Amino acid sequence: MVLCIIVYIVCLPLLVASVLRKKHKDSLPQRFFGVHFKLPFKPQYWFHACSFGEVKSLEPIITALLKDSKQPLVLITTITHTGYAEANKLFKSKFPTQVCVKFLPFEIFLPLWRGKLKQLKSLVVMEAELWKMLFFIAKSRRAKTFLLNARISDKSHKNYERLKGFYKGIFENIDVVLAQSHKDKKRLQAIGARNVSVFGNLKMLNLPKVSKAYHKIAPLIILGASTHKGEEEIIIRSFLDFKRQYPDAQCILAPRHPERFQSVCEMLDKIGLAYERLSALGSELRGDIIVVDMLGELVNLYAVSDIVVLGGSFVPKVGGHNPLEPAFFQTRLISGVHIFNQQALFACVQNVKLIESTQLTQTLLGYENLAPARVDFRVNALEEIITLIK
Q1: In terms of domains, do 101 and 182 share one?
Q2: Half-sphere exposure at residue 326, Cβ-oriented, CA atoms within 13 angstroms
Q3: Considering only CA atoms, which of 216, 283, 281 is closest in space to residue 250?
Q4: Are residues 148 and 286 both part of a single domain?
């Protein structure tokens, strides 16, 4: 606690300067200066998730709790703007009297919430959000504490090992840890975690929902999904070779980040290839090449694609992306070998073809030999977690 106060004082000038930036004008005042700090009710359940993806993973769990006939009160805290916005969209807008969404206050301010936590039954924290005071405050109110979807990446493993004495103190206040994989379980236990079991990734609970039906014109669609810089060129080169044998095939490129939409279009212009922008097409998927220049359309495109080439895996530093959604639609699923951040999810999917970028053309040409991908669902997984938390 003393260390937290020292860090806060040292960083105060930087925090004040950061508040002036548009990016932090909402989160930093709430996290570090007590703005909108007061809780409107005494929650029974407290969920903490750092980002958009973690909030999204909690959707089936929190929704199931909120629909309980006892109408429990739920506090949701986040760190990022996208996580905060998603929590409001998914929960606050639908259950306005039962849900409170806040940015997680800095640790020195958390004890000020203790008076409002008299009825707290459970604290549920996602992945690697190991805030010492967060768990301590919950245990001081005799609440059950959980770390869900817990993982330690290859990249951060050594840093955790160096500070295992510190993390052991945090895990003393965590009752149950559900790890994503056996590797994560072993690493978590090495830094002091107790009662660790392997549950898999909570993203398995989130079945993808189609929000828009696209009309498929081409008999064969190859979707390059969540691509990063350099991957679009790899996919396009292979597609052009593929098209010599399958002239009616179509390629759709969906860059991972919206700031790259324009650069992908410029890359195609430079090569001299005609393309359509998805935003200009309506519901009909016309043209040999389409660039996805809209957010939130990937699931809708998985639903009509025959082959998915999953990005973030042909370049070395990203670590892959979620294979569950394309596998849910039983596409023929191809990924690069660099999937170190998604190994737990890939373990849940059958029939994924992992290749080097140099093998993509040959793999596409032999697509008929690829079995449709399938997800290994854990039966009653949601019910298990709800029972545990309650």
Answers
A1: yes
A2: 30
A3: 216
A4: no
Do 220 and 307 have their domain in common? yes
Q: Which residues contact 1 (CB under 8 A, 6 or more apart)?
A: 107, 108, 133
Does 343 reside within a domain? yes
What gap in Å lies between CA 163 and CA 167, rounded to an integer?
6
Residue 270: partners with Cβ closer than 8 Å, 6 or more residues away: none
Q: Are 388 and 176 in contact (CB under 8 A)?
A: yes
pLDDT range class, residue 13, cuts 50, 70, 90: very low
Token pair in block for residue 187: 């690493």
Q: Chain centroid to CA 303: how far?
A: 20
In terms of residue numbers, what domain contains 84? 17-107+114-206+381-389
With residue 129 as reference, give the H or E element that holds it. none
Q: Are residues 201 and 52 in the same domain?
A: yes
65, 74 in Cβ contact below 8 A? Answer: yes
* Gyration radius of the chain over CA positions: 23
* Residue 6 counted as domain residue: no
Which range has the worst mean pLDDT, 156-165, 216-225, 238-247? 156-165
- Distance separating alpha carbons of residues 126 and 330, to the nearest angstrom: 29
Residue 288, domain CATH: 3.40.50.2000
Q: Are 106 and 30 in contact (CB under 8 A)?
A: no
**For tokens 């929000």, what's the residue?**
211
Cα separation, 137 vs 271, whole angstroms: 58
State the total domains in the chain: 2
pLDDT above 70 as % of the chain: 90
